[in-house]
Amino acid sequence: MIYELPALDAPIRQGDIFEGIPRIDLSIAELSILNENNQTEVVAWDAIRGQAGPIVAMTALRSVRAIVITQDCDTVRAPDISLCEIKRFADVVKVPAPGSAKKWGDLLVRQAVANLKWFYLPADQHIGFAERMAVDFLATLRVNRDELDAARHMRRGRLNETADEHFRERLSEFFRRYPYNEWYPFTKDEFDAYKAARNEEADLIQPYPYQT
Fold it and tell me: What is the distance between the alpha carbons of residues 25 and 124, in angstroms, rounded to a whole number?
C-alpha cells in the first residue's frame, strides 16, 4: 500500500506512524491535584495557576495511534516532536460508508478536496490498520524527542515517498488555511438560496449588510 517499514534504528521522520502514544485528557475546570497535605483535591486551574513550584496532578491517559508532523530537519534537534492522532475513518469523516469500490473512490476524492481537516490512511494489516483510518489534524500532541527516539520500537511504519509528499502538502494547507464565509460575495437572492439549501446550518449563516 502507501506505507514503508523502516529499520528499527532509522531516524524519526515526518510521516512516521506510532502506536501506544499516551494522550492526556485534562480538564482545566475540574483538575485533580495533590494538595500540601498529600490529599486529593479537585480545583479549577485558574485557582492554582499562579502557584510557585510544581503541581502534582492526576489525569486520564489514553493509548492512541499517532503520526509525526514535525518536519524532518526538526526531528533531529527540536526538544519535542509534534504528532497528530490517527482515528477510525468513520469517526473523523462522518459520512455514510459507501457500498462499492467506485463510491469509495468518489468519496475519498471529493472529501479530500472539500475537507482539509484530515488525511486518509487505507487499511493495512502490516501497519496495524484493520480498517480505514484518518489523521485528525485537529487532534495534536507532543512527545519529548529523546524519549520518542528511545521508543522507536513503537513505530509501526511510515508513509512512502508519494504519500509523504501529499501528507506534507495537506498538513501545510490545513495550518495556513484562511477562514472566510464563502457566501460573502453573493447577491441577496444568491444568499437567500444558499441559506435555504442548508437547513442544518441556517443559524450559522448570517447575511452581510448588503445582502439584507
Answer: 28
